[in-house]
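Support case: user asked for a sample of complex input and structure output to validate their parser. Sending the pair below.
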Amino acid sequence: MAPQDSEPVADRKVFVTVGTTTFDGLIQAVLVPPIISMLHSQGYTSIRVQHGESTEIYQACLTPELEAELAKCGMSITAFAYADSDEITEEIKFAELVISHAGSGTILECLRYQKRIVVVPNRSLMENHQLELANEMSKQKYVVKGNLKNIDIAIDRSATYPYRHFPRTGSKVFAEVLEEELDKLDKDTMYG
Amino acid sequence: MIAFVFAVALALCILLIIASLRLLSILPDRRSGPVTEITQSSRIVEITTPARSHVLFILGSGGHTAEMFSMIQSLSPESVTHRTYVFSSGDKHSARKAQNHEESVYGNAAAGEKGMEGPGAIGYRLIEIPRARAVGQSWLTTPLTCLICLSKCMDILRGGDVSALPRQMRELWKGMEFPDVVVCNGPATAVMLVYAVYIYKFFGMCKTRVIYVESFARVTTLSLSGKLLLPVADRFLVQWPQLADKYQGAEHLGFLVS
């Protein structure tokens, strides 16, 4: 996770993703010159944006000022609308920082690959359980939670944040439960 | 005439009582079941799984499916010899995930072909069923689609599709039609399938046990499927302690996704 001093030319990618939701605010909050400058100062070299249906919003964000800032920082930017989950996984794998909506799938993928993640709940969504998940995950130090108004604070925090590792034992616990249940059935048929 | 009406009423009452008693006898008794204090590492489970076992996995939409395969990735290939994956119509993504899973865990290329080769890999079935409720579907037509879904679920459970399998596979599935365990984690289809299990259980036709796992995304409230299945699942697992505190019968063993 830490920057590799021995490989100064390596691409250090920031992945911004809205999943299958519409989240114009997240794209507009990240793609501004001050944030680009901050990401550059943290050592990142490229930005990859998955913007969903907000193609026009994304293009509107690419103002001359933003382009100038990117050029000054020597950073590149690319984008796409949607991808299937395997491709998103690949994007996450090769990213160093993920700035994401609060979807549980994306959060889990980031934790699996031990990525720095900044989660921004989409408050315009009706389902508030996404917000609950983001709150709880940030309370337990698995993610850094940010909001649209001051996403810079969250990104700044993410650089030195002591992210907790997500346990990898879940599927083993589940395997035990399933075997217990198969066992019970075995006894049922033998004695019952 | 009055005597006749009285006799019918009495008969109905007796039937109702018998049905209720039967229902009580098949509903899970989780009070004597495992307690929530089981720790993740301190247990030694003596594995005496039956030689042949059939587990049915119900796949939902993207998020549910991803969680399901994350959860079941550590099952030992020997422990579950017969596997059925049920996915909603049109959900090619889930179907492909099931195939990928079979390939990585069991080395199976495709159902019915190499599905029967390799150690412990007796075979798997991939079954498509109509959705209980499509996204955005009117609540007026929902009872009808639920009924259609329920009848298909009943058909799957008794192995209605087994006769259509390739001959070699048919042999392997004979006598294994009813799943030993059903595993589900949320979609509306799961509710229908579990209710179908209960219909068969009611008539003593199967002993299938149901494991329900609430989504990792649910921290303080159960999903609608969760609420509907809480009274009937033999094991009801939640991934956040807040839920186990709030709902009686919910079990918390830590995160199950990884």
